[in-house]
Amino acid sequence: MMDAVVIRKALWSEITHVLLDMDGTLVDKYFDDYFWRHLVPEKYAEKHGITFGAAKEQLFVRYKAREGTLNWTDIDFWSNELDLDIPALNEQVRHLLEAHPNVEDFLTALRIHKKTVVLATNAHYKTIAFKMKHTELGKYFDKVIMSSDMGYPKEDEGFWINAQRAVGFDKDRTLFIDDTREVAESAARFGIKYVLIKHMASSREDAEYTGTLPYINNFSELLP
């Protein structure tokens, strides 16, 4: 099995397209973890007059039921479902939003080397706009493909079929990076030759990597 070093060498020679996830891959997942595990339950508890613990228990059941579906990352859906203004709550904690270290250096190198750079995400378009604005990463991308436009979440092969039609990438000359094992494995099953896991999706969680796909801890590992 190829490792990250092999992929890095291929990146600056034969790879033409680089597809990148956003949350947890380019952007520190601590923002989302804090938002959905702490802020939303706190506001939900206040709204319904229940304890924070009870709110977390109720919400986590509802989150789990939508995991892996298009609604999972649809903040309009969650605004309606929870009767909370999710975009407005995002703004309240935007100071927690940060790109991972060396992400801009990596994206700059991709532009210099004339790679086609695509944001491939399950995120809602409002979430993308919010995060691209506050991290200033949007200028580095040639195209954005969202699961809502593809008709499937990235865990589903249908996403990749439609993404290839939309972007026109050669599977043998494409690199995809994601922090979620199920998504990375889906891309690999579809036939994308170079697939990497971004380990340490959240800067606040130092879990040991136990997957089988090649991985990086920091984007500095891919710089030419």
UniProtKB/TrEMBL annotation:
GO terms for molecular function: 5'-nucleotidase activity. The keyword Hydrolase applies. This is Haloacid dehalogenase. Its EC number is 3.1.3.5. Keywords: Hydrolase. InterPro entries: HAD-like_hydrolase_sf, HAD-like_sf, HAD-SF_hydro_IA, HAD_sf.
